[in-house]
Amino acid sequence: MKKFTLFAALFFATAFSFAQITEGTIGQGSFTNYSGTTSTCYGIDFNNDGVLEIAIKENSYDYEGNECGYGSIEYSDSKIQIVAGTESWDVFLLLNEGSNISSSNNFSGYGDAYFYNFNDVSTAASYVGFRWTNNSQNYYAYAKVHRNGNNIVWDKVYYNATAGTAITVGATPTGIEKYTTPTPAATIRKVVIGGVLYIERGDELYELTGRRIK
Question: How far apart are CA 159 and CA 165, in angstroms?
Answer without folding.
Answer: 10
